[in-house]
Amino acid sequence: MSDESNGVPATGTPEHYAIGIAFGNSYSSIAHISGEGKVEVIANEEGDRQIPSVLSYIEGEEHHGTQAKAQLVRNSKNTVASFRDYVGKDYKSIDPTPCHASAHPIESDGQIHFSIKDTESETENKVSVLEITARHLRRLKNSASDFVGKPVTAAVVAVPTDVSDEQKAALSKAAESIQLEILQFIPEPIAALLAYDSRSSNPTADKNVLVADFGGNRSDVAVIASRGGMYSILATAHDYELGGAQLDQILVDHFAKEFEKKHKSDPRKNERSLAKLRLEAEAVKKALSLSASATFSVESLADGVDFRSTINRTRYDILALKTFARFTRLVEEVIKKAGLDVLDIDEVILSGGTSHTPKIAKNIEAIFPESTQVLAPATTTTALHPSELSARGAALQASLIQEFEKSDIDQSTHEMLTVTPHLAAAIGYQVSGQSADAFTVIVPAETAVPARRTQVIGGLQGDVLVRIAEGEREIKVTQAAPKAKPETNGSKEGDDDDDDDSDIDEDDEPEEIREKVWKPKQALAEFVFRGLPKGSKVEVTVNIDAEQVVSITARPVGGKGGLRGEIKAAESAQNGSA
Amino acid sequence: WKGHSDANPNFRTLGKLSPPVMRKIEPFGAQFLAYARRKRHGRTFSEDDRI
């Protein structure tokens, strides 16, 4: 995936210092591993950790980040924003909507350019999106270099899962032009998961994780099977018209109407007033994520009239109800795409700036069972900062691979290595004396082989037969109270588009109880222990090698007389994979 | 109940593993690096542990 062929001559210098960069359409951040081995998100000279991906020019002077973003009001034509998704793309395939309020993308020699006055002269220059990206990355690189006190030469860059190889090649090229080597591109959901796993007490636990990255202009969600600390993406879903900008718009409309009522003019009709509204709406939205009410105030909003108003969180939650529901639907969509149920998800990571919104996190928490951990500031006090996850994960990966040669990294990330057999079904055990349907998982499905798992079976006595089998997860539905119509809270059944109203009654009690049960499907092997003393434990180890040969070893804990056996690979699996 | 063979009287096989699904492992994190090292050198878990 990340093997760009434009092999940069490996520098090979020991003073290779790599950082993590999260490069977004709206915001970018930079992170590194501090001297004490902790991940640290770096603030730029302005003190921002979330640095707006905006560049602006006044009389040849370049402004970046928050300073540049402020120029969207008075100098919008010379301000470039929301350009990440244009890198490496064809002019015809892009959506210029996010750029309406800033410099517009134009086509020149089949490439995407911006026409801006970026020099002291009054003539407009056509600057390619690659050049803009290079300038943005240079500012990020310089901020990082200044902070760590040594030149940053390399980076791991977090990008969405659907970024194409052409886009990656273009990003690498832009970075190369400013002497920054991109060692690897890391998908944003994997970066977020790494950021959490790095501080987890048991990072190699088997779990299904859903990562929802709610950004400024787009939202991406992914379901990841995490097995023994290795990650496989099971499904992804994207919405390119859903993000913080949609929420800002709700506040813009709200305050514009209020202004119109008072002063009989619509500030949205004036470009500059609209730009002011947008900036303030975003600030109000952020304030509402932290406190229960916020003040909206703009000097000379329209017709020279100052405007001041307040809004509380409840009001905002009602105004944004429909938009909030779209985030939840995107989450439900990706679970469906992965062929899973909400009950199969062990952990939900909310990432991206929009994940700070308490109501969005609460809505998502509500569709999952209590056993699922939802990691967001509104749902867990120990949650990490959602805006920082991608940069943190990228920094962790950068520190892992910075001493490797680029060729080594490319070889290790080649598909020869990364495409491997994964178990189609879970492997588990049944013990005599339990009900015929009882089944306990030892190795979950979607585990990449080779794999080895050990489990201890307790409470055994006398002659015991243990059967190793493949199992299947089923969702058992039991009706609790036969009142009201079914499927109100129906997690993924019928609620496709346009039934937003069903989300209003989410506080209703669920009519049905859904639970996850395991059913043995296909027996693999059996073994017996005879005459075990009361309260014995047996430790079972299942080892699946690269050729899908399963070997099983079992021994009584603290006793003797272990046994081992082997299950040969199925013939159909023998068509040489890697 | 009858064992697999006289050599291993307490164990018998009953079936075979379902054919696996080919998927991509994301090349990130310490565990992946260990996996890549094993795979590139053709080593097993225990061989790798010893080194």
From TrEMBL, chain A:
Residues 477-518, 556-578 are annotated as: Disordered. Residues 494-512 have a biased composition (Acidic residues). Keywords: ATP-binding, Nucleotide-binding. GO terms for cellular component: cytosol; nucleus; protein folding chaperone complex. GO terms for molecular function: ATP binding; ATP-dependent protein folding chaperone; unfolded protein binding. One of its GO terms (biological process) is translational frameshifting. Residues 484-493 have a biased composition (Basic and acidic residues). SUPFAM superfamilies: Actin-like ATPase domain (SSF53067), Heat shock protein 70kD (HSP70), peptide-binding domain (SSF100920). This is Hsp70-like protein. It comes from Capronia epimyces CBS 606.96. The lineage of its organism: Eukaryota, Fungi, Dikarya, Ascomycota, Pezizomycotina.
